[in-house]
């Protein structure tokens, strides 16, 4: 078994290195990861032409009109469709696409029907690192303690953790799942996690040794959820993480899965719902899920994306999700970081150290806005322990008000990197 693991580990190493070369990555050595049993099946059927990978082609999402007098399944049946079940926690259902019709065509037909309030594709959503632009790298210079890494020291973690450690705060991490046996996560995960990719009660990370999204990188999302969860806990070591799997091994999920998971996490009593994928503002099922989660008292914090472009508009910022972009160690915008008027806050996101499911070392260095956002989710947990009475929005505003301004360092980007760089010391100061 040891030999087998060793060989598979090297195959993965080779695959990641090739992917890095193909994508023009830094060429840093990839981690040697401990492989679980590879599942043989692809994670999603091939996408229809012209739609993003992961978009469901067998069904679309539809919402009944408010004043409907007949059961919605009868409405769908009259259109040659059938109801395949609700998107839990939202007013949408999955509606089967009739034979011979395209998903987009069926959405258009539903939208023109007075008995249907809204319809949309069940869109494929990609985590920011799912495009293979940044990959995790192992090395020998990794911190033993994640909390002592330079980027966290620089933003005041020592002073902050002397005041609060996030005790009693529950943070859902909606990502690729977690490797629960990782030493860093051991004993720090809450019961009740769920897998919305496989629709089961075990949110463990899985990989299948397939390049499901055909981008040249195999299982590039492997370890992502473990890494993100560890960063929340690096900032807030006494918080607990509820792992919720919404992304597969190539870091793809669907809008219906993300929406259902957001409401699920809120109903589990989570204070923070950390989402490693952000949906475009026109994805109404996710917007509704975010609204429902906020009504239940949760905040939703997400990464702004790795497009490197100004594509985070004010409308996206107003959708109830607190969007975080990435800075480098000099507080300059990371070259991959998305920006725009809809960004709420910035945080370190270049060469971040986090837990990784590998043999030795069991940490990695990774860059992306996915690794800036969990620092903010951890910071929210610190504030919540210190102040159990204020509304979530008051605490989010405190994170913004106490941020270190970075506009002067980033000419031309004024107002497009949020309120500035997360300052853990200032945010938790009495
Ligand atoms: Ca599972
Ligand atoms: Ca891939
Ligand atoms: Ca895969």
Structural account:
The protein is an alpha/beta fold. It has twelve helices and 15 strands. The strands form four sheets. It has a seven-stranded parallel beta sheet, sandwiched between helices. It has a four-stranded antiparallel beta sheet with strand order 2-3-1-4, covered by helices on one side. A hairpin with a 6-residue loop joins strand 2 and strand 3 (93-96). The longest helix is centred in the N-terminal third of the chain and has 21 residues, at 2-22. The protein is globular and about 65 Å long. The model is unreliable at 1-33 (pLDDT under 50). The structure holds calcium ion (CA) (3 copies). One calcium ion (CA) binds next to loops.
Give the count of helical stretches: 12
Query: What does the radius of gyration come to?
Result: 21 Å
H/E series: HEHEEHEEHHEEHEEHEHEHEEEEHHH
Q: What is the 3D shape?
A: globular
Indicate the mean pLDDT: 88
Distance between the termini: 54 Å
| Poorly predicted tracts of residues | 1-33
User: How does the helix and strand content classify structurally?
Assistant: alpha/beta
Q: What is the makeup of the main sheet?
A: 7 strands, parallel
- Which strand-content bin applies to the residues? 15-25%
Helical residues, percent: 25-40%
Bound molecules: calcium ion
**Strand line-up of the largest beta sheet:** 7-8-6-10-11-12-13
* Strands, count: 15
């Amino acid at each position: 078994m040891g030999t087998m693991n060793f060989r598979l580990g090297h195959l993965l190493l080779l695959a990641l290195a090739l992917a890095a070369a193909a994508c023009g990555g830094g060429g840093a050595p990839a981690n040697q990861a401990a492989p679980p049993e590879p599942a043989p099946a692809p994670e999603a059927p091939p996408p229809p032409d012209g739609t993003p990978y992961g978009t469901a082609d067998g069904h679309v999402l539809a919402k009944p009109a408010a004043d409907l007098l007949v059961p919605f399944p009868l409405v769908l049946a009259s259109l040659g469709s059938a109801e395949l079940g609700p998107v839990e926690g939202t007013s949408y259902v999955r509606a089967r696409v009739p034979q011979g019709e395209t998903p987009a065509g069926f959405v258009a037909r539903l939208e023109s029907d007075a008995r249907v309030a809204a319809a949309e594709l069940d869109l494929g959503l990609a985590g920011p690192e799912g495009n293979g632009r940044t990959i995790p790298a192992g090395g020998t210079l990794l911190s033993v303690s994640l909390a002592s890494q330079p980027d966290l020291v620089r933003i005041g973690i020592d002073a902050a953790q002397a005041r609060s450690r996030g005790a009693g705060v529950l943070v859902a991490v909606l990502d690729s799942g977690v490797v629960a046996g990782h030493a860093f996560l051991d004993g720090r995960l809450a019961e009740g996690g769920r897998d919305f990719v496989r629709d089961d009660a075990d949110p463990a990370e899985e990989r299948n040794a397939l390049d499901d999204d055909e981008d040249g990188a195999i299982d590039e999302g492997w370890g992502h959820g473990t890494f993100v969860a560890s960063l929340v806990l690096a900032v807030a070591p006494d918080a607990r993480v509820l792992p919720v799997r919404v992304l597969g091994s190539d870091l793809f999920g669907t809008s219906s899965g993300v929406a259902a998971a957001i409401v699920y996490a809120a109903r589990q009593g989570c204070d923070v719902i950390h989402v490693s994928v952000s949906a475009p503002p026109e994805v109404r099922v996710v917007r509704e899920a975010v609204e429902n989660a906020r009504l239940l008292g949760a905040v939703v914090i997400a990464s702004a994306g790795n497009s490197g472009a100004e594509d985070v508009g004010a409308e996206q910022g107003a959708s109830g999700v607190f969007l975080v972009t990435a800075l480098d160690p000099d507080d300059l915008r990371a070259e991959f970081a998305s920006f725009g008027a809809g960004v709420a806050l910035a945080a370190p996101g270049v060469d971040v150290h986090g837990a990784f499911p590998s043999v030795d070392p069991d940490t990695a260095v990774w860059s992306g806005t996915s690794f800036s956002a969990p620092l903010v989710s951890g910071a929210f947990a610190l504030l919540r322990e210190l102040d159990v009475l204020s509304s979530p929005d008051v605490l989010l505003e405190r994170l913004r008000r106490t941020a270190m301004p970075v506009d002067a360092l980033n000419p031309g980007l004024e107002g497009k990197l949020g309120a500035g760089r997360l300052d853990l010391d200032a945010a938790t100061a009495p």
